[in-house]
Give the backbone structure.
Amino acid sequence: MFLAFCGPHPKSKIECGYPLHAPEAYFPYFRKHNVTTIVRLNKKIYDARRFSDAGFDHIDMFFIDGSTPSDSILLRFLEIAENSKGAIAIHCKAGLGRTGTLIGAYMMKHYKFTAAEAIAWIRVCRPGSIIGPQQNYMQEKQAWLWMQGDLYRAKQKERMRSERPDYSGILIAVDDMCINDMDNCDRCNDDDDFDKGGYRNQIRYGDEYCGSSCHITQGDRLNQLKLQRKHLKSATTGSMMMEEVKPHKRSGSQPVRELASRSAQTSVMSPVKSSKVQGSMSANNTSVAALSSKRALRQVAGTASSIKR
């Protein structure tokens, strides 16, 4: 960004109704708009150290008022403008002729303005700029400035290509890479569990084959990893064997009643039930013995009474 302004004076004052400003009057505005460099094109009226002490870069490129810059001055200005960290404030005595000529040259080089377009745009922004022989100078330098702009852009592209990181090596490395989480599996599982099914020998690094005569692609390796994880999950959670899931069938030669009788014969009673059964059997035996003894006494009593009669 460029800022064209009238040349500062040693002291701020009003002369013939026109205000003149000292360098310190511009400091707040320059800092607010990130102005870092001041270019002076006229003779020395103020001390440049007043800008330098305030933290600005000050550069002198004097050429006569109303004239055109030399090639060395033009090239130096373009180089300063291209390498400046911030905005550039340019002034001559009035900030119109010499100032507008250098700014227009930069626009023609970097934006391919024609001489007429650059003059018109600068006059819209700052009326009265680029007057007299400076207009012819702009037309004469148009083709040369365009060529300098093409060379500058070509150098910039070449520099960006050289600074851009080379991804070819990374792409080759990715093409040769094989997904393998063997280290993670070894940390979580024992070697004995991991060796089941021969999964350890199925995945290899590089371009080796994985358990078959054909070349294994990246998708095949991913499928093998999924199978490997399923195998490890079933081994840790404890899956049922196929023999346990099979239903048991009854042979046709054995009838149902025979099986029921065999199961009844072979059934075993619990200790509690057996004790209850034994107790009930002993009680029944006792009651039978008591009844038989009573009957015997009755018979004896009956015989005795018959004898007395």
